[in-house]
Amino acid sequence: MSVSAIFSHKLRSMLTMLGIIIGIASVICVVALGNGSQEKILASIKSIGTNTITVQAGRSFGDMRAGFVSTLTISDSNALARQPYIDYSTPNVNSSGTLTYANFNSRTEVRGGGEHSLSVSGIEIESGRNFSAEDIESSASVVVIDQNTKKQFFKNENPLSKTITFAGKPLRIIGVAADEKNAFGVSESLRIYVPYSTLINKISGNRRINSITVKVKDDVDPQMAEESITQLLMQRHGTRDFHTRNSDTIRQTVESTTGTMKILISSIAVISLIVGGIGVMNIMLVSVTERTREIGIAMAIGAKESNILQQFLIEAILLCSLGGFIGILLALTLGYGFNSISSDFTMKFTTAPFVIAFVVSSAIGIIFGYLPARNASKLNPI
Is-above-0.70 flag for pTM? Predict the structure, then answer.
């Protein structure tokens, strides 16, 4: 009888379920978007190295005086590399200048680092090779170029073993890096990579290093390693004129922030579920009024209060459950459409939101359907 009542008033039933459908679909989609964006951001953090700690000049991030602090040295990096809890340490040096090949030239950023600097930054070698320890030690005039440099200067030509000129200094190409992606997509700027010793000794002449990146051993707590690094450098410098950036801390912050945002936005989406539940209650109250004759006849021929209560309660639960099911299908459809057109990140669906959404929709049917059902059961048969 409950099913018959729902399908005999299709438009009214659909309008009744609309709030539930939108609410359920909203909650599921918000959680899926949160999971997808969190996965994208964490993948970007992973690409700059897991279990890595970067030491930079300045007391803290955004320190206005950081540009005038030049106390980080190569010997600091070597001292860190000797610590038992560190796999390796590499100094980082940056500069910019004009890159020239044949009749092409362009403004380019050059990054100087150690033999592990590319891998610790999540940059893979597409062709050729990376720097070796011998290249670092001998300040070899070698360079690894990125994809943008290859496309602009060499097009369909194989760049390996070719010689390019940066700031008037010839460099032999030994490798081509794969696309370097970050949270904002693929970089469009030109970038080349050389051994830090080459940049310091042959190109810039400036022995000031920008930062030091260390790779912590996998079985070592990153927080403990960060404290040890801080203590060691404070002993060497006599003061804290640097700050550290721990990839593990960034990961935890991202997870915490995205988790909070998911809860906040989901809470807003739950409001539509409550509104939908009130809509169900209103329509059921109207339905009780419209079906007074039906209820009276049922009672007159022997229906008990419990029978009438069950009929209207089942009707409300079916409406909300069916709305919840349609909401789940709508969320999956929206997710499929979004994932088909989005190249940046995708919606990640998990089982828990579907189960919770369906249980919540059924609970709404019970909570908001009880009052109309009780009113129907208490009607006088006459």
Answer: no
